[in-house]
Fold this sequence. Notes:
CATH architecture of the largest domain: 3-Layer(aba) Sandwich
Distance between the termini: 84 Å
Mean pLDDT: 94
Number of domains: 3
Radius of gyration: 25 Å
Helix content: 40-55%
CATH class of the largest domain: Alpha Beta
Structural class: alpha/beta
Shape: elongated
Strand content: 5-15%
CATH topology of the largest domain: Rossmann fold
Amino acid sequence: MNIAMIGAGYVGLVSGACFSEFGWTVTCVDKDQARVAHLRAGEIPIYEPGLERLIATNVAAGRLTFTADMASAVAVADVVFIAVGTPSRRGDGHADLSYVYGAAREIAASLTGYTVVVTKSTVPVGTGREVARIIGTARPDAEFDVASNPEFLREGAAIEDFMRPDRVVVGTDSVRAREVLADLYRPLFLRDTPIVGTSLETAEIIKYAANCFLATKITFINQFADVCERVGANVQDVAKGIGLDGRIGIKFLHAGPGYGGSCFTKDTLALAETARQLGSPVGIVEEVVRANDARKLAMADKVVSACDGTVAGKTVAVLGVTFKPNTDDMRDAPSMVILPQLVAAGARIRAYDPAGMKEAAHLIGGVEWCDDMYAAMDGADALVVLTEWNAFRGLDTVRVMALMRDPVVIDLRNVYDPADMAAAGFRYVSIGRPEIDGRRPKLAAVKSGQA
């Protein structure tokens, strides 16, 4: 089977590489000539564990190629996936579908023989029908069907998610298209992966409903973390206590500085806007959006509070700036709000991230980027953990204590054990857990006590 993947971004690259691993012939199409040239040279523009090797293997086998020529790729394709961006539209938060509809027009011009055109991009309900209308109007003679096949890939674990998914959603009214896509995903049948067949509209809603529900779980536990801090409870125990209930589940109940990334922020905004336009507003999602925006600002205030009410003139070390570990993605990362707030408050920020510093340097001003995490801590008045990279988990506390001017740790991801940090001499502030102050006494305090 021949596949044309329109868009060589995150979703297109991962999906294209994984389909080629199934044995299909895949051509990834991108209008960015420089991106295509880099991909042909084996240079991967995104950080995703295992993706570089997967692409290299399938390029060498002749199953995966890259081009800027959409016409040639579409002309020989049995299935054409639209995997272009759908960013939030300025002004109203609705998904910008100009790239999707532009791709549909170009696809129409090159169709030959029966083809299934599939929206892989996250799109509001009704988009698939409009794609079908665009193609049908431009090419009344074309033999095609339109389907929706939303992706459920987690950055940092995308290949595993594609190869061993919880489910595959296929939305189409065409029996023929459903059979083609069932054949496309046939390798997953061996693993008993559920294939959920729905209408176009249902598949489009499923994607948004899934992301909005997960964003709601994150926001729910973040708000309960605030309650826990007020009463001296432990939010991690609360999460475990409710998460072991099979109706709730433990995943996405990790308190932190708020969600970010390429999906949750834009998808909650888009769903809220679509629902308002339909006259069926989803108030819970609107509140999630509001609460998450407020959360990021509150985390900057939390850092200031932990620094005795001011960061003016102080050096703040920051570990991690990407929105999650195992990615270089900075889109809507909490750091994009928190660090500028601290800089504006007079802090000197020294930061380190294993993968995101190159991108972050273009997006966040007033930050000194360090070669390793310990360099960031040298002479720091406070240490803030913003992203839970595994490299940060084995912190050499003795070394950190010697490096920092004032051993204050604000852990916004609950990476460390409070008792261990207190025993090591730190004043340790985390999310939704009792604060423990085990830091060494300052020189002035010792003199005062002697007096």
